[in-house]
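PROTOCOL LOG
Step 1. Enter all chains and additional molecules of the complex.
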Amino acid sequence: MSSSAISRDDVAHLASLARIDLSEDELDRLGAELPAILEHVKVVQQVAGDDVPAMSHPIPVTNVLRADEVRTGLTPEQALSGAPDAEEQRFSVPQILGEE
Amino acid sequence: MTALVAFEDALTRYDPVMGLEVHVELNTATKMFCSCATTFGAEPNTQVCPVCLGLPGALPVVNAKGVESAIRIGLALNCEIAEWCRFARKNYFYPDMPKNFQTSQYDEPIAFDGYVDLTVPAEDGGEGETYRIEIERAHMEEDTGKSLHVGGATGRIHGASHSLLDYNRAGIPLIEIVTKTIEVPGEKAPAVARAYVNYLRDLMVALDVSDARMDQGSLRADVNLSLKPRGSDVLGTRSETKNVNSFRSVERAVRYEIGRHAGILDAGEKVVQETRHFHEADGSTSAGREKSDAEDYRYFPEPDLAPVAPSREWVEELRRTLPEPPAERRKRLQAEWGFSDLDMRDTVGAGALDLVAATIAAGTTPAAAKKWWLGELARRSNETGTEIAELGITPQQVAEIQGLIDAGRINDKLARSVFDGVLAGEGTPEEVVVSRGLEVVSDDGALSEAVDQAIADNPDVADKIRGGKVQAAGALIGAVMKQMRGQADAARVRELILEKLS
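Step 2. Run joint prediction.
Step 3. Record the structure below.
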């Protein structure tokens, strides 16, 4: 999204992708606020020239790797302790609707 | 629904364009981003931790062995290896990924721009044709959890009241290998797709980076297919048939989709871009979900993982660990052994290539190694439904049995009893021969007595031989063998018979 123009439909689409239920009022409000946020980010883009690469990690490190050695994780009881519902030692989730 | 068009008919008007995506589950001891075990078939949710459950505050760390395997796969596919690449989050909401994203790679795959040359066997068993398949990329990602749908018919998601999740598989390293578009003559497309997946399986096994078992899901193929009208350059809309789980199914899925697309296009309708499910029972596919656009996944670089920048020294070190490519090895072995194409295909098909190779390396002739593995042992493998490599007999033991035959201590028939004994766990071939008393009798005293008895029992036959019909000796040899429970030295028996009756 290089342009900061964000339509109300864009906001509705993003909301549905993020599974956020927005009211009509909220769609209107965010449709106005999101472009403002993108404008702020644009200022950074102006400062960062081609010689400043985008970074995704705050520290310039690479190859943080670990050995392939098994370590004990959680017990099933611990793993399931935070689950709203469990059955047959598995996490129980509501019906998965409208998807395959 | 529009009618299917017969495969051959479809090819008179359309050319298929394929793309294949293969997911390989690595055989690392731990997951890609955490130290949980990866044992297949463990009790549900016993191989999980805060990282693979996506609990707040958990910090993933990349498995070095996963990167190593990815690089070796990339090199074996003749790919470039990235000097610097990152992981990315592929965002979607589905309970099989508790983090609500899959850690994958997006525009910076670890390996890219490769190719493989594969030979598609000719149907008549003759010289096959070679095709080059271009590799777009191979990237690192993680597997998802397993869902169990409850309350619906036969475990299907439709009609299910709720679903149960086991996250043991979530986070197991996957390498996704993506081809560039494959355009081969339409009638070859199904066989080429199959040969490609087969090639990858053999390669993964040779690299020892994966079990590559399609039946257990450690190697899964997605078949992308579209048609373009003959003579046109306009690409059609593609369908993506997911998780096809056998070589034969890959072939059938391509055939089916060609016929289905042709039916839709013939009717003047539009192919829908969607994922499809393959049905083993009748070889058909059915609609899954409509495909989201790539941007709907809102990929962005994974901020919790540092970039991977494999040094060129490491890459070259790994290049030196690459095995001889399976196809070249086969060609070399076939020439060394003097096997026909058919022999070779039978050997590979029986899963006996390495076993035959090891038996020959232990000193047996290629012909004898082939005889035992493809005859006696393949038969037992079929009868018991056991993989030939799992029968419980080693190539060294087979070589030892052949050695006993060559030394004249047992014959082929007695060897079958030795196989019985070794497979029953009675010890080494030598021990079985002794404990079962299987040694061939070549002592003239005992043999001579048996020959005299056989002559006495079969006077007509004896007369024929006296009259010069030497080929009748077979009947007397048979009688001696019967008397001696198969343990007579047949060559010596023959000599004795001819001596006595000349």
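Step 4. Note key features.
Residues 247-266 of chain B form the longest helix (20 residues).
Residues 444-501 of chain B form a domain with the Arc Repressor Mutant, subunit A fold (CATH 1.10.10).
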